Structure of 16S rRNA (Cytosine(1402)-N(4))-methyltransferase:
Amino acid sequence: MTNTVHIPVLTQELMALLNPVINGVYLDATLGGGGHTRELLDRLGPEGVVIAMDRDEEALERAAIEINDPRVRYVHGSFSDMADKVMALGYHGIDGIIMDLGLSMTQMKDESRGFSFNSKEPLDMRMDRDLPLTAGEIVNKWSERDIEKILREYGEERKALQIAREIVRQRKRERIETCLQLAAIVERVYRKRGRTHPATKTFQALRIAVNDELNQLSEGLSNALKILKKGGRLCVITYHSLEDRIVKRFILAAERQEGSLVRLNKKPIVPLRDEQRRNPSSRSAKLRGAEKL
Ligand SMILES: C[S@@+](CC[C@H](N)C(=O)[O-])C[C@H]1O[C@@H](n2cnc3c(N)ncnc32)[C@H](O)[C@@H]1O
């Protein structure tokens, strides 16, 4: 495996929005490479706590070695269970929650995880290796119709039907084992390459399906409301429009219908041009924040 370091995104903007209190209790629900957790620790006093959660055990193991700080409590699991996990640790009110969605660069570049188009490894894409479904199972076992549906809904892929058809045609000849094989099938449908790889949307769709990402997000947001203290802040960074729509609607509904949250920013905060240049994977990031009433 490679050792690519994840560059944290929108860090200063996130910290400004979170506005940590010196000895507060915070949940970093997407620890990843630990960049945001480290920034938070720098701002907290000796009694401060960061509950650092990830559904990827490898991320937790790496961070536990690299961030050697008694103020951090590591938790394995999905943020859709954050309320139970946090309460099981004995915390009942949280001062702030960070959700920085999607994948870390470390996961993306680790070929054995099967997220990257260039990987000769099996199509896996599970963030948590305990999950039952892999991308390989979807492309080799699901019906053409179901594959088309996820490509259209989760990938917003305009050639969903043609790609699903080609996948089913190819798998009759031989099982589609690797990421490279799938990328080549999509390339054949597209014929020519633009600036982004033609398989980008297909890979995004499969990843969302394998990890049930949109349902996890909705449940994670509802959980966040349960454990935030009055005045506590929820900050979410999304990387594509499906996620951003869920976050935006959730915050608006909580503000207008229940009166339980108030938006901290009406328009999403996006990375400055300089950050986008230094870290191209930050380009699609959008940060939204809300305060518990
Ligand atoms: C973009 S990275 C976070 C990077 C981190 N903020 C940093 O500064 O290094 C996203 C992380 O969230 C994790 N993740 C994604 N969905 C999750 C979920 N439902 N529950 C817990 N962790 C999740 C991924 O495994 C990945 O490690």
Notes: Residues 18 and 233 are 6 Å apart (CA to CA). Strands lie at 25-28, 49-54, 72-76, 94-100, 228-238, 261-263, 286-292. Residues 108-211 form a domain with the DNA polymerase; domain 1 fold (CATH 1.10.150.170). The first strand starts at residue 25 and ends at 28.
